[in-house]
Amino acid sequence: MTTTMNNIFSTASLFTFYASLTAILSLLQQFYTQFVPEKVRHYIASKIEQVFSNRYPKTSFTLIVNEGDHDYDMEKNLLYEACKAYLTTKLRSCATCLTGSITNLDEPISYGIAQGEEFVETLEKDGIKIVWKFVCRNAQGKEDYYGHNKSFELCFDLAYKTEVLDAHIPLVVVKYYEEMKKTKKKINLYSKESRGHCWNSVQFSHPFTFDALALDPTFKQCIIDDLDKFIERKEFYKKVGKAWKRGYLLYGPPGTGKSSLIAAMANYLKYDIYDIQLSRVDDDAMLRRLMLSTQNKSILVIEDIDCATGLSRDYSNDNASDFENDESDDEYDDYRGSRVTDKVTSNTESKVSLSGVLNFIDGLWSCCANERIIILTTNRKEKLDKALLRAGRMDVHIHMSYLSMNAFKILVNNYLGVTEEHFLFNEIEQLLETVNVTPAQVAEELIRSDDVDVALSNVVDMLKKRLNQLERSKKKGIDKSQKLLKGEELEKDGSV
After folding, report:
1. Quick check: 361 and 291 in contact, CB under 8 A?
2. Number of helices and strands in the chain (H, E)
3. Each residue of 341-369: pLDDT tens digit?
């Protein structure tokens, strides 16, 4: 009986002691959390971890391959892309979870790796086991399915660190590079988000090629030859100490195919396109960061550079441009539209300076990436500061002029499939020598009918109409000049 009572009291005492100890530890934890600063707690935890790690050394090694530097948005990590392609092919047969997407019904479904998916790889040669894991983390560093910080974590025995880092990982990169050369590269079109310095991208599916471009065939071949020469001269650029880049200035009236030429160049080179709108760039520092976040093998485009504040000069007192000498009033309205755009742009908050753009194109920061093409477009070349136009910045100046007969035949072949001479070609050629029209204006007439005779007749009618407008415009100009000589007051009349 006495022994039983002693056991009961001993058990009760044990529970009492446990309850008291738990309460004391809870109070200490609350005190530690509430009154000890967070930095101090982190310091204590790191010291404790360091003590135990020194006593019990790790036997495994982890390699973390991030998608990119999310603090600075520098170049995309190509090792990450290589690991992604390599692991996707491995997981197709054994993964328990994959992501699927498709952007074009004409293309196969693209499969990707799901958050948290693991794959154990055993190297055939050495029998080394590598545990691959795909992880998405949020801003706090915690695993999150919707996290933007993506990475691959490779865990393996520390004893095989040299074999994995110096042999297997470079092999993954080589396999990825060879696969990219074999397969047709998808082209992406990037644009800047309304806020910040990040890029949004969509797949660039513009079908335009050099074959469809309405330019004189000889002139078109010169552009192709220049591009070919550029991509083959990596060692030459290195030898002469120049950044491996090339600048193209596309200038001419609206509707002459400047954007179409950019699409043709991208499809020909298989380069991504970065559309840089200076009105969305806050200052020179952001412009520099945008440039640093672009990849190699890309085309950087700034359209309508003449409309950017601070990058163009006032031409209100300049002589008439080459374009104004032979254009009708409605074509001149396109240029007046450009002037209105200047006023709107000047009211934006963008503080990009001419110096910032020059450094973007040809400064020290422009050497931070290779094999890039920079394209500026403008409707008025004479508005641009001469510093933008010099060789080394804009190496090639391409005048996108009005439609010629050779270019017209390309349009007719594209829209109507006509490869032989047509009885209306002579009349159209005579009209094109007198009237200035853009490829876009003629294409609008050709697309209205599938009947060759009807479509070409529409083109003739349109050209004749514009010829009459031009003659009336010239006549009106003579009448106004005569009135000025007589000292008569001119009436404000915007009609043609």
Report:
1. no
2. 16, 13
3. 333 344 445 678 888 888 888 777 667 67
